[in-house]
Amino acid sequence: MGGFTDTNVGKQAGKCFVVTGANAGLGYRTSLVLARQGARVVLACRDETKAMAAMANIRAHVHGADLGFLPLDQADLDSVKRAAQIVNDEPHIDVLVNNAGVMMPPLSRTAQGYELQFGVNHLGCFALTGLILAKLAERPGSRVVVTSSIAHKSGRIDWDDINADRHYGRYVRYAASKFANAAFLVELDRRLRAAGSPVTAVGCHPGIASTELMRHLGFEALLFAVAKPFINTAAMGAWPTLHAAAGPVTPGGYYGPTGIGEWRGPSGPAKLSQAARDPAIGKRLWDMSVAMTGIDPSTMLTS
Q1: Residue 66: inside a domain, yes or no?
Q2: Cα–Cα distance for residue pair 93/200, rounded to 1 Å
């Protein structure tokens, strides 16, 4: 089967990638491959100890790897703002890879009191992207990568209960957060193009991959264990991320596994739901996200 894998990633010397959630799973595998190809990789992670362990592992495989650590907790918008200030002090940033996320935990809240999955998976991504868009725009060919999921196709946003004050279902809220990622990608692409920005928005999803993201699953984790021969490893799940970050893409493109059902396999064009491409939904989500975060990426767009 044809498609994009880690073997298709070309030399990245002189480029700087910021990868969120980079200490494990897809983020770690993405960082390892990019470092191997000569990029400077800034690992944006909540846990410094785990980040340092990941950096040591990368250096064990890549002699002289150029790595940096960025403290980032996407469950706290104040942490996101501090991280953006640090990133903006880098000489340049070529690609922001929004990879960090949580999957189906018990009902929890962010530091600002928002439902955790929507807060981390979407609002943190939205805020960080907005705060460093101007920095990205300094570099021709720069990109923002937004990671969604197959689950976005069943996701719907409960506009009247966005914070799960009345009802919480782990999967429903996860799917909603991944739908928000997909709709944000489409709306960000539209606004970047309209502004004549040099930044390209690209989306991806890993198919079904066995990673630490599944740590909150109970019985479902047993099903994934049985299905392991038929799903992606973390290394394979990173292929669409690498494709979106460093491969040939089209603005607003969305990439994922090319196997049956987009479950596994090399990366290629993937399908976004019709709802995720609805401009009215995209605008409503954007406006609500601005109100919730106090950050408007539109003010960072350059012509």
Answers
A1: yes
A2: 13
Phi, psi torsion values for 70, nearest 5 degrees: -125, 115
Strands (E), the chain: 16-20, 40-45, 66-71, 95-98, 143-147, 200-204, 254-257, 267-269
Q: Report residue 140 as tokens.
A: 């021709």
pTM score > 0.70 for this model?
Answer: yes
Structural domain boundaries, residue 82: 10-295
38: domain CATH number is 3.40.50.720
Q: Is 255 a catalytic residue?
A: no
Cα separation, 129 vs 143, in Å, equals: 10
Q: pLDDT digit string (tens) for 144-184?
A: 999 999 999 999 999 999 999 999 999 999 999 999 999 99
Is the Cα dihedral 272, 236, 103, 42 positive or negative? negative
Query: Which listed residue (28, 114, 174, 255) is catalytic?
Result: 174
Give the burial class of 32: count Cβ atoms within 10 A of its Cβ; 0-12 exposed, 13-18 middle, 19 or more buried: buried
Residue 98 phi/psi, 5-degree rounding, is -80, 95
